[in-house]
Amino acid sequence: MTLNRKLEESFFKYLSAIVSVLIILVLIHIVYSIIAKGASALSWEVLTQEPKGGFYMGGGGGIFNAIVGSLYLAIGATVLAFIISLPVALFINIYLIKYPRTLIGIRFFLDVLWGVPSIVFGAFGFILLMYMGMRNSLGAGIVTVAALISPIMIRAMDEVLMTIPKGLQEAAYSLGSTKTETAFKIFFRQALPGFATAILLAFGRGIGDAASVLFTAGYTDHVPEKLSDPAATLPLSIFFQLSSPIEEVQNRAFAAAIVLTFIVLIISITARLLYRKK
Amino acid sequence: MTKRLFIDKLSSRWMVLCLSVLLLLPLAIGLGLVIKSSDLWLTHALGSLIFSQDWSPSESQFGFWPFILSSLWVTVVALIISMPLCLLAAIFLTQFAPTWMLKVMRPVIDILAGIPSVVYGVWGVLVIVPLVADIIAPMFHNESLGYSILAGALVLSVMSIPYILNMILEVFRQVPVELGEASLSLGATKWETIKYVFLRKGATGIISAYGLGFSKALGETIAVMMVIGNVVQVPASVFDAGYPLPALVANNYGEMMSIPTYDSALMFGSLLLFIIIITINVIFRYIIYKSEAI
Amino acid sequence: MKTAIVTAEKRVEHITTEVPIMNISNLNVYSKSAHILKNINITIPKNKITVLLGPSGCGKTTLLKCMNRLTDLYSELRLDGTIEIDGQNILTERNRITEIRQKMGLVMQRPYPLPMSIYDNIAYGLKLKGVRDKNVIAEKVEKHLREVALWDEVKDRLKSSAQRLSIGQQQRLCLARGLAVEPEIILADEPTSALDPISSRVIEEQFSKLKDDYTIIMVTHILRQAKRLADYVVFMYYGEIIEHGNAADIFENPQTDILKEYMRVGH
To answer: What is the pLDDT of residues A53-111, one digit of tens each?
Structure first.
């Protein structure tokens, strides 16, 4: 009896340990296999040049268009999302704090919105474009991705703001601050490091998303110059090049995957470091 | 003084405006998709759209059943793989592991969650597809090109691990330590405490994590599309190619303007996805909310 | 401080005339940054209520958790010394730790009913002990619920969730749950701190009755509660035992300034 109980415990202890190690190994394997495959194709030319003629047939050039396009898009979307998210996060934590039911309802709603897949955002963005008679562009991509990452950013900011004690708010009022002053001078400052993490998280999500920009940002071999130009993105660049039958083109897809993974890793690690500092 | 009050007013208006835009967003999405797909559901019976297997857009045949079924297959298989893994990992990390192990795992989970979908797809093409074609399929005496439901499910299961694992870790974190102490003091082993007390206490949370993981996986587009083969058919086994709904929408975007009502059909596909996922989300978020309120 | 040590030794002799059930010698507990318990030496007498008294944060609860090795849950704690029960040092035991824990029932600061029915809360420990006979289990459930005066209140809803009971009822259920594994010792960690005065009184009355069959070790910082219940008192301060001995001696004739001060401001 007791032996059985002991054995059962040891069995599950080791099984669960093995599973945990397995998860770490899978992560290492993902990073390793992409680097192993793409490193040879990674060169200065690939990073800094736009595609030249016959690029998708194995011709020269690089993915500069996609790198810059992705950065433009993700930065634009993050800024736009921030302009929407910051007021919302502050609003629900300052104005709605006395209506707990509404507050719970809105958090619930944001969580559900977070669950909407990016392809649906993409389709919706596309509908809006058609409705307004516009074509695929960097601007449209920015708006769509901003809508996609706003719920994430708001909830992440919200989590930070929730930890600020109510007493701080009361103290600010008692000194004569208006609600806006309380929001931007007290809460904003108090929560700044946490906000940085929230912004980075949203940026990482934005730069990696493919399905939402497929319909809205379009694709081009050139670096976009204005918001109405179409823009290439790294995820789509990887996707298109990988579906080519030519090996050289495929290898460039792996190289592009290294670039994208690298960007996301840096963001993820920075976010974690910032969070820890706080 | 008046300037301060003016700024206060202005900024509260701005806050309310932003919030309203956001609150209206899903409504607008739903409405937009309904209107845009109206050409389709006005001319075709809803039942046949969903349950028919005939898919030939050029002949105006739009049966979504193969896509719906592919989506369900790949998501269910993925969840079957990742569910026990997430639960066991969460148990190990919160109950058995030394604290440094949890510290190692946190960034690992974060990074896994942050890796873009398309990179998982690349990994799938490089590793999982050959694995299925050369090793797993022959093991079951099957022939497969590798681009299959199983490949999609394997990639999807890895992608859903950080999402589900994080939620289950949170569930275990919320179980009070004292409850474990109570069980141990009654003579239970650690594993018995997990099995009889923690799993029971966390049951709703764990089930909700699985539910939300399911809905997340259902909407996953690029990575699955890269490895699943994209053949319109009702899959007979996991070694067959499939064609899930998100892939349908994403893949045919280029040509959808050339065939009449094709664009409506794709919007209808998005609408189906939207409705299913919103419903699942509302249900499980509500369950979580209820269980936290107690 | 010197006088304290002398009188403490005198009182140890006094205690040992009783039947000892637990012997703690040279127990030290360290965490990463602190020395939590310093050189603890006491003998716990059988069928008495021993009260661990002292201000919060003085190590009472840690000492209690050492007694049934719940300290295992905290990887940062390091223990040395011995705790002997029935002549066996439990701190070095590796395999029979679940049996040792079953010798002790635990009542915590707040009630933590297991997430199952009232009935199953009591039956849980029995099943772990290997009791399979349904009639025996049913009998014991009734017996122990009666023991804590809960039976009449819950006999019609044994299958409903234990979490729906009032907090006072929950605490009595947790006591009954601990009794069901038939321990020799009841460990109670401020068992009334979360309860209203009436429920507290019920628990205290139970304790006074239970000491005929069990040895009770109770942590409290409430002086009056200690005076009402204690046969023996162990007064702790910053991880050390300052004074210990017969309740009457300790309360009527405190030796150290710390205890005198505690009794003057305590309630």
So the answer is: 777 777 777 889 999 999 999 999 999 999 999 889 988 888 888 888 888 889 889 98
Question: Is A14 in the B-facing interface, judged by CB distances under 8 Å?
Answer: no
| Contacts B93 to A, Cβ<8 Å | 20
Residues C44 and C173 grouped into a single domain:
no
Q: Give how far B15 is from chain A: nearest CA, Å.
A: 5
Q: Residue B104: which CATH number?
A: 1.10.3720.10
Question: Residues C154-163: what's their mean pLDDT?
Answer: 91
List own/partner pairs for A106-109 with CB under 8 A and 24 or more apart: A106/B19, A106/B23, A107/A155, A107/A158, A108/B285, A108/B286, A108/B289, A109/B23
* Residues on chain B touching A26 (C-beta within 8 angstroms): 112, 158
CATH number at residue C35: 3.40.50.300
Q: Do B118 and A269 touch (CB under 8 A)?
A: no
Could you please report the per-residue DSSP string of C139-171?
A: HHHHHHHHHTT-HHHHGGGTTSBGGGS-HHHHH
Q: Are C169 and C197 found together in one domain?
A: no
Cβ of A3 under 8 Å from any chain C Cβ? no
pTM of the model: 0.87
Q: Which of A124, A268, A269 to mutate to probe the B interface, most B CBs <10 Å?
A: A124
Q: Measured between beta carbons, which residues in chain B are less than 8 angstroms from residue A29?
A: 123, 127
Contacts of B75 in chain A (CB under 8 A): none
Kindly state whether residue C15 falls inside one of the protein's structural domains: yes
Contact A1 C98 (CB under 8 A): no
Count of domains forming chain B: 1
CB neighbours of residue B168 within 10 Å: 25
The residues facing A233 across adjacent strands are none
Which of C165, C182, C199 is where one domain is finished?
C182
Domain that holds residue C94: 2-103+183-265
Hey, are the CB atoms on C95 and A5 less than 8 Å from each other?
A: no
